[in-house]
Specification:
Elements (H helix, E strand, L loop, with lengths): L5 E3 L18 H12 L7 E3 L6 H4 L5 H12 L21 H20 L5 E4 L20 H12 L4 E5 L6 H6 L6 E8 L23 E6 L5 H19 L3 E5 L17 H18 L5 E4 L10 H12 L12 H11 L27 H13 L8
Helix pairs in contact: 1-9, 1-10, 4-5, 7-8, 7-11, 8-9
Length: about 400
């Protein structure tokens, strides 16, 4: 491996804009990049753009007719075809939709290519992580599924084992669907239980099929799960699976919407626990992949001032081997930017003041505890299919 961590960025990503009343406000991307720069992390990475994903790349995951429908809606939003999930409340059509979506996809594909070819150990695209888009439809604020496209490109380049770990509060349904029968891809998703949150999928019993049976793992967490339970679930499932699978590349999705301030979900995770999982993903990439190959993506997150920029700035710092001290004071220049862009007051420190800790699964479990029931259900469903003990 050579070169510093790559951070994928292009100002044009803020054109991924569903409108003023939509919760996925692109200001969250601009503010994150502003905070990265305020901490000087842009000097600790190689800042790169990439070509937008072309039709041949998009067709690695998406149907040709769907890409054509996105192009049509992009040129004339009034012509959006709702049969493709376009022009809906979740995914309103907007001018330039194809161009902005293809750019974000291209950044994730570019990150995967750089890591696979040895240009860097780690690459981050916090503008990506749009994990709900299906082969033939938009869904859940996602037009093109950049994580799936990045993985598909890795397979095209010759990768034989790629692991995908998704810690967004919502199930990574589109990525799971793309590789449902593919034994080369292990998908692991930790998310709020489908009984209480979109997309109502991600049950423990969803484990893949055909040659891919046992290659999908889902941990469905009870609403209200906080730091200790979230971290316990992660460490009870993810490291053991990665140790068994031995991926050549680790792709992770770090949706910030697990946070207790997020308005669209019901977990109670702190910024400090999110940071802890990022550190664990970094360490797991170095432990189990070929040369520490790690592609880290963003995802959901709708507390666009208080949470998302801080969370993903920590991700960039960790991937760059230049972690931001949680006790750091947020630079006043960035808080001025926040006020200028949003008329809100930005957070003062890079921490929620928590000290994350958890009880390891190896210490035993409580069959009456809802969190432990969720973890055990996932292990019982998936682990025996991989020859692992529950």
């Amino acid at each position: 491996m050579s070169g510093r961590t790559q951070l994928m960025w292009d100002d044009a990503v803020t054109g991924y804009d569903f409108g003023d009343t939509h919760p996925m406000d692109p200001v969250r991307l601009a503010l994150t990049m502003g905070l990265v720069r305020a901490f000087g992390l842009d000097g600790a990475v190689d800042l790169r753009s990439a070509k937008s994903a072309g039709d041949s790349t998009l067709r690695l995951v998406h149907r040709e007719d769907y890409v054509a429908a996105v192009r049509a809606a992009s040129a004339d939003p009034r012509a959006a075809d709702q049969d493709y999930g376009l022009g809906t409340v979740d995914d309103p059509a907007f001018a330039g939709m194809h161009e902005a979506s293809a750019l974000i996809a291209g950044l994730s594909v570019g990150a995967a290519e750089a890591v696979w070819r040895g240009a860097c150990e780690h690459a981050v695209n916090f503008t990506g992580g749009l994990h709900h888009a299906m082969p033939g439809s938009a869904a859940g604020f996602c037009v093109y599924n950049d994580p799936a496209l990045a993985i598909a490109r890795l397979l095209e380049l010759g990768a034989e084992r790629v692991a995908y770990v998704d810690v967004d509060v919502h199930h990574g349904d589109g990525v799971q669907a793309a590789f449902w029968e593919d034994p080369r891809v292990l998908t692991i998703s930790l998310h709020e239980h489908p009984r209480t949150l979109f997309p109502q999928t991600g049950w423990p019993e969803e484990t893949g099929s055909g040659a891919g049976e046992g290659c999908a793992v889902n941990v469905a967490l009870p609403a209200g799960t906080g730091d200790a339970g979230w971290l316990r679930a992660f460490h009870a499932v993810v490291p053991e699976l990665l140790a068994d699978f031995r991926p050549q590349v680790l792709v992770t999705q770090h949706g910030a919407d697990t946070h207790f301030e997020d308005p669209l979900a019901h977990l109670a995770v702190s910024l400090d626990a999110q940071r802890s999982v990022m550190e664990s993903c970094h360490e797991l990439a170095h432990r189990y992949t070929d040369g520490g190959r790690w592609v880290a993506l963003g995802g959901g997150g709708y507390a666009v001032v208080d949470v998302v920029p801080r969370s993903w700035t920590h991700l960039v710092g960790i991937a760059a081997h230049a972690p931001v001290d949680p006790e750091s004071v947020v630079p006043s220049s960035w808080r001025d930017l926040v006020y200028a862009r949003t008329r809100q007051l930005g957070p003062g420190r890079m921490t929620d003041g928590r000290t994350p800790s958890w009880k390891g699964w190896e210490d035993g479990y409580d069959p009456a505890d809802r969190l432990d029931q969720a973890v055990l259900a996932s292990r019982k469903a998936a682990f025996p299919l991989r020859g692992l003990l529950t």
